[in-house]
Amino acid sequence: MTDLQDVNAKIAALETKDPSDTIRMTVKELLLLLRAYRCEVARADALAAVIKKAILHDQGGGE
Predict the structure, then answer these.
(1) What whole-number distance in Å separates Cα of residue 38 and Cα of residue 53?
(2) Angle 41-58/3-16 helices, nearest 10 degrees?
(3) Which of 39, 45, 38, 58 lies closest to 11, judged by CA?
């Protein structure tokens, strides 16, 4: 699996995860995914949406 495929798989997994699990990821893990996608704006937006959903869920305002 290439690095890009690996990151795609990780983001796809995050999109289906419980937001509580996403919020537990380390900042380092999230930054690695963001850096891998610095040229892939659509996927970076998807990752940002997953992170936002997790933060809202953690604050009690989940969807």
Answers:
(1) 20
(2) 30
(3) 45
